[in-house]
Amino acid sequence: MTEDATTGNAPITLLIVDDHPVVRDGLRGMFESAPGFRVLGEAPNGVEAVALAAGLDPDVILMDLRMPGGGGVEAIRELGRTGARAKILVLTTYDTDSDTLPAIEAGATGYLLKDAPREELFTAVRAASEGRTVLSPAVASRLVSAVRTPRAPGNEPLSAREREVLALVAKGTSNREIARELFISEATVKTHLTHLYAKLGAKDRAAAVAVAYDRGILG
């Protein structure tokens, strides 16, 4: 890899993932004008991001979350499954619990909002490339609150993996088949079921599916 002329170190390589071309152009221009960074490519959705990451092998992926054609959380999970080396820094406009928690659970190294100052973003990318967790103050506050404040039974949002398990349960899939489908152990499937039962306030598979349909979680 070519060394950066200013720092003497290899530049941090980036893949920018966002469905808005103007945002991608802005981020590319920002990082290419700063020493120590090199943009390898861009993707408009999570599916293309996973494919590009396999070929480009970036140090850091700047990942938006809500994108037509493939969301960020799904991409983060898939990158984890494929063993991608890249650290993933979520860069989005959304800071709700339903966005932040699944992204962190999926394996994101950091989470910043798009209104972050330029220098804060540069610092975050450097930190992420070293494997250090970076969270915007608003997101950090939400995560602390989520840990400290017990949720009422049946009101806690499901993780992305729990939604996958629940969707398969709704199709009548057995624990063994779910384990095979998701490449996890049956014990892990049972753990996910226990957690989602508690979150939905359900006693069994049938009740969980019924509650999920009633709340619009499924279909």
Automatic annotation (TrEMBL):
Annotated SMART domains: HTH_LUXR (SM00421), REC (SM00448)
Keywords for this protein: DNA-binding, Phosphoprotein, Transcription, Transcription regulation
Coiled-coil positions: none
Stretches assigned to the HTH luxR-type domain: 151-216
Keyword Phosphoprotein: yes
UniProt-listed SUPFAM superfamilies: C-terminal effector domain of the bipartite response regulators (SSF46894), CheY-like (SSF52172)
4-aspartylphosphate modification, residue list: D64
Pfam families per the UniProt record, alphabetical: GerE, Response_reg
Domain of life: Bacteria
Domain Response regulatory intervals: 13-129
InterPro entries (UniProt xref): CheY-like_superfamily, NreC/VraR/RcsB-like_REC, Sig_transdc_resp-reg_C-effctor, Sig_transdc_resp-reg_receiver, Tscrpt_reg_LuxR_C, WalR-like
Name the record gives this protein: Response regulator
